[in-house]
Amino acid sequence: MDRFAAVQQRLRTAPPQALAAVLAEELRAGYGADRVELRMIDYGMTSLRRVDGHPADEDAVSVYDSPQGRAFGAQEPHITSQTGDGVVVHLPLTARGDRLGTLSVGLPAAKDPRNLLPELRELCEVLGHEVLVAGRDTDLFLLARRATRLTLAAEMQWQLLPGRACVRPEFAVGAHLEPAYAIFGDGFDWEASERYLTLSITNGMGEGMEAALLTNLASNALRNARRAGLDLAGQATLADQAVYAQYQGSAYVSVLLLRLELATGAVEVVDAGSPRAWRLRGGRTVDTVSFDSQLPLGMFEDTVYTEEHFTVLPGDRLLFGSDGVYDTPGRGGEKYGDRALARALAAHKLLPAAQVPVALLRELAAYRGEAPLQDDAVLMCVDWYGRGQETS
Questions:
Q1: Distance from C-alpha of 392 to C-alpha of 389, rounded to nearest angstrom
Q2: C-alpha span between 267 and 362 (Å, rounded)
Q3: Cα separations in angstroms, 388 against 176, 227, 279
Q4: Could you please report the per-residue DSSP string of 198-242?
Q5: What is the DSSP letter of 320?
């Protein structure tokens, strides 16, 4: 068994809570590493925090101005010199496009990092998958993501989400929520099958636990309907019935549902509330994509939902946002609005989809100044590539 296969086997059989320790042991024995640091990106996407079993890590590094942050942002290895001889290779830790953190490996001067990069990058791919699997059985990696304590509502919402990014040949998706450590009513979801990419952006009314419970009910009802094989309108109808049965119209959920056919780019939409959509086409033109607004889920009994249709073209970028984004007031009281969001979307056209929501929410923070968010803010970005000739 070669060196890489041996490390891979150890990672797959390691106890979940010992994954980081086993990795360090194998890198020291097999690669001569004298430094091994596994870091996770925090919920706010601002710092990379070392996995060491403690919820509060004073050794966190900024995602904006550190070697680890450079590897994380560019999704490429970044090499720095160590004190004395040798170098440190900082590598992105990613699983199916979801950016999890970084791995830093210190190598002695005798090792040529360029020759080891392909193997180390492949090792990071294996490690990323193992970290996701280990997260089912240990809190170790979730603890490393916390720059501060999550509220209970935020804990529930983050556990509900599918991830923060997903990449396939036909598309790339990225999404983010703020305030990351105190969210309650907003959420998002996606699912990719052989035929479809299904997306939802939800905004449950209310605050705190009430909003979190409401959004959890609606999101799981939508998943249940999707997994039962219902069409998009049927998914909205079942979720509407579930919310109304529980709250009798006293609480409701705004949702934007979309289903993209991977072979053609045909899109089905059910617009049931406040989330909005924008499209960047040709890297230049940003348009608001408008739909016929239907009733939010759970507002009235026996609501009938209908689907609308449009088509995305290869190269299109779609952005979806809640009212906590476009209705946020600035220093002068003027709302952020469609124009400011369109300008920001065009300005960040070169960023990958996974980074766009964070970048736009950072601009939103600058726009509102010292004022805290008055509502949750969720953004989802979708880059559509299509399937070559099938999309023409």
A1: 5
A2: 29
A3: 29, 28, 20
A4: EEEEEEESSSHHHHHHHHHHHHHHHHHHHHTT--HHHHHHHHHHH
A5: E
Residue 51 dihedral angles phi and psi, to the nearest 5°: -85, 105
Q: What is the pLDDT of residues 230-284, one digit of tens each?
A: 999 999 999 999 999 999 999 999 999 999 999 999 999 999 998 999 999 988 8
Which residue reads 């079993």 in tokens? 53
Question: pLDDT digit string (tens) for 206-221?
Answer: 888 999 999 999 999 9
Nearest to 262 by CA among 166, 386, 389, 97: 386
Taking only the tens place, the pLDDT of each residue in 45-99 is 999 999 975 545 568 999 999 999 999 999 999 999 876 678 999 999 999 999 9
Please report which confidence band the pLDDT of residue 389 belongs to, taking 50, 70 and 90 as the band edges. Answer: very low
Sequence-ordered list of residues with C-beta below 8 angstroms from that of 3, at least 6 positions apart, any chain: 30, 31, 119
Whole-angstrom distance, CA of residue 115 vs CA of residue 36: 18
Q: Could you tell me the pLDDT band of residue 390, with boundaries at 50, 70 and 90?
A: very low
Question: For every residue of 170-207, which 3-state class applies, written as one string?
Answer: CEEEEEEEECCCCCCCEEEEEEECCCEEEEEEEEECCC
109 CB-side CA count, 13 A? 4
Axis crossing angle, helix 232-247 with helix 208-227, rounded to the nearest 10: 140
Q: What is the pTM of this model?
A: 0.92
- Percent of the chain with pLDDT strictly greater than 70: 95
* CA 68 to each of CA 65, 93, 352: distance values in angstroms, whole numbers, following the listed order: 8, 11, 18
